Amino acid sequence: MNKWAYQNRASAILFNYLKSIPENSCLLVPANACPIVLATILKAGINFKLVDLNPDTLLIDIALVKTIIAETPDNVALLFIRTYGFLDDQTHTFKQLKSMCPSLKIIDDRCLCEPNFNEENFVNDADLTLFSTGYSKYAELGRGGFGFLSQDEIRKNASTREAYSSDSHDKLVEQFNTCIKTRTRFKYQDSNWLDLNPSKQAFEEYQHSVIELKNTAKKQKTLINNIYQKLSNNTNIITMDCEYNHWRFNILVPDKKAVLTAIFDAGFFASSHYASMVGIFDPHHAPVAENLHAQVVNLFNDHRVSEQDAMHIADIVNTVAK
Questions:
Q1: Are the C-beta atoms of residues 88 and 62 closer than 8 Å to each other?
Q2: What is the pLDDT of residues 243-297, one digit of tens each?
Q3: pLDDT at res. 214
Q4: What is the C-alpha to C-alpha distance for residues 102 and 37, in angstroms, rounded to an integer?
Q5: How far apart are CA 43 and CA 40, in angstroms?
Q6: Using 50, 70 and 90 to split pLDDT, how confident is the model at 157?
Q7: Is the pLDDT score of 161 beyond 80?
Q8: Contact between residue 120 and residue 91 where contact means Cβ atoms under 8 Å apart
Q9: DSSP classification of residue 278
Q10: What is the pLDDT of residues 213-256, one digit of tens each?
Q11: Residues 6+ apart with CB under 8 A from 133
């Protein structure tokens, strides 16, 4: 039986799903996963392996995934994260992987994608399709996540509940930031940092709010992205294909630090997600993920950015990236 999962955080859905798979599973995760995702995996008690990206798609390298599955076919799971919200058809890939390993669990992580409640648009071979409406996501409700399960697996194991501490969450994020900045190993200590409590809002009400919000967000992002797109005229700036720019507008620049500093000094904001987690959560190397993070700047295109702001930011980037 198919079903929807809905909680205060998408990571809570991921946690409860991971608690339903064998404890000796190895979860394959792209090397540039958000650290909160990796902490969720650790909290669930599941082993994971970071896998580098494909340089062409910037998604997890499926060739490497196939090699790992061939070497260790039992109790393998895949967290397929849609980098920067890039949403292509992975039906063929998921079918191939399932044919290699019928017991393979696939989580289609669309947390940076536009929220979608039409399961006909999901990949049939995904065991869980996951969305988020938390802070900085496509439809930024500031809370909430939902997922679609191909089987009723979470209900087989009662969803875990525990007291939630925002202080514990903030300390965890601070620890992440320190480790990323200093490139030192992260040592996980469990605490009640993850909000596992059920949402107080009915799913139907939440769904209505998300649909309204995503429609507004889509108009805003289109408006702002049209301004940023002119950066493609600068030969020192690589603008990613439009399919990668729904969440934020992503560019590659030769001196990322200088661009970010200039944007912040002018009173605006930008980011540089997502850092490679190898060396922090995993001792191996991921050159593609590391090279991407060395160059990428995510320009905001949400409700906080006006047309005038976007024009100022574009001028700053053009000036610095000469």
A1: no
A2: 999 999 999 999 999 999 999 999 999 999 999 999 999 888 899 999 999 999 9
A3: 97
A4: 25
A5: 5
A6: very low
A7: no
A8: no
A9: B
A10: 999 999 999 999 999 999 999 999 999 999 999 999 999 999 99
A11: 115, 139, 140, 141, 142, 143, 144, 145, 146, 210, 213
For the whole prediction, is pTM greater than 0.85?
Answer: yes
Alpha helical stretches, state H, the chain: 10-18, 35-44, 62-71, 91-100, 153-156, 166-182, 203-228, 256-265, 287-295, 307-320
Beta bridge partners of 47: 26
Q: Which of 141, 145, 129 lies closest to 3, judged by CA?
A: 129
- Whose tokens are 């990796």? That residue is 38
Q: Are 29 and 106 in contact (CB under 8 A)?
A: no
> Residue 322 above 90 pLDDT?
no
Determine the number of helices (DSSP H) and then strands (DSSP E) in the chain.
10, 11
Q: Which amino acid is at 193?
A: W
Which two tokens mark 190? 């469990």
Give the position of tokens 């929807």: 4
* Structural domains in the chain plus CATH codes: 3-201 (3.40.640.10), 207-320 (3.90.1150.10)
